[in-house]
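Note to self: the last two entries modelled the partners one at a time, which told us nothing about the interface. This time every component goes in together.
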Amino acid sequence: MPFALLKYAARSALKGEHAAEAHFRWAPDLKPAYDVVIIGAGGHGLAAAYYLATRHGITDIAVLDKGWLAGGNTARNTTIVRANYLTPEGVAFYKESVDLFRELSNELDINVMYTERGHFTLAHTDAALNTARWRAEVNKHMGVASEVIGPDEIKRLCPTLNVSDDVHLPVLGALYHPPGAIARHDAVAWGYAKEAMRRGVEVHTETAVNKILIENGRAVGVETSRGTIHAGRILQAVAGSSSVVAKMAGLKLPIRTIPLQACVSEPVKPILDQIVVSGSLHVYISQSARGEMVMGGATDAYGLYSTRSTLDFKESLMAHMLELFPFMGELKVLRQWAGMADMTPDFSPVMGLTPVENYFIDAGWGTWGFKATPVSGLRMAECVATGRQPDLLKPFALDRFRSFDLVGEKGAASVGH
Amino acid sequence: MKIMTCPVNGPRNIAEFVWGGEVKSSPDPAACSDAEWTDHLFLEANTAGVVTEWWLHAPTNTWFIAQRNTITDEILDTMTAETFFARRSETLT
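The predicted structure of the combined assembly is written out below.
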């Protein structure tokens, strides 16, 4: 080591300048009671804790997780952020998420590597093109940049994509959404955890909630693997296990748990700047900052509480992927994984108040959870703090199914399901 | 390749089958409340463990009953709907 560098070490040791700071301030023990207990230390739960602390002055919070920090679906998604949904309710909601994502690195003082890439939803049929036009009009009306473009323009913007006629299903057009972005999923969760913990929020991992204590229709606490704790209010944010946890609170949800598989290729130099999705071919792809091609498809054909991967998935994915990007034939699959997705009948989340007093839910995140991390945290924090359903969440209330007010977001699901 | 045994057509590739969801009994639409009806339509037990479900062998349009473990992804048993409901009514009486 050059001798001159020692002065920095000395300054750090003597004056505390440039001292390394621990990212997370872990609390060793559980307290007997908290104002708010959040079940699930993933992106959504941690974001809710952060916004409760910063926007509502509530810091007496415990975030509990059976596993480790952000080790569930936060670590198992394909990190795409977009707002080009189909329904006005959905567009307004995800637009706020995109707005929050854009400022997130500054807000959390961590680089979440938010990168706007441009998002292409390819249409291979007239029906898909009609849906694309519909989405573009709803998007523009709501102030979200989206337009339908033809094959020539697609080719100009995304030269690696094969738009020739010499394939099973030629590309007829695309819904082009320039703000479509990717972000570093771990950094998002870590940033929220770090800043929440800095303000006094406790995060307890490897702490399973085994029972939810309810007295006279009111949630009062939880029994955990490390003892019983009382809670003024409880928020569940446990994608994949939503039905299992809600059952402990006596609730039945409009959710089926279905695996969603994904994989990445070996890393290569930058070749694909855009995010490309084909609903008809059930594939989507983007290239990560590391150079890996991140690929996914539709959810599995049947429900399962398992994160196993299958050959069927990869075969059907690659068959279509090779048509869109023939160069992919040169690449090997490096890693594969699956997440357990909460699928709802209307492809929209279930958020807000529940029939159990002081028990709040953030579920039904299917395949669209990561992109909603900031907005769901912000609005669920508002919901928990005020005890009222925020306007933005009203369309997504659990009781919408009782009145048949479904949101109908299937046309904008990233791929057909 | 995962294999499912259709009670009529024998062991076939799982890709030939369509998941139909849990077996649940429908409330009497004329007698039940609106809430009971919408709950029946939309709410799911979504059990983590052994489940009894409707499945369809699509090429032959054969609906039947399968028992699966949703944690281990094992198909435990398959039977015709006739067998299933006959057994169920035996256990009920």
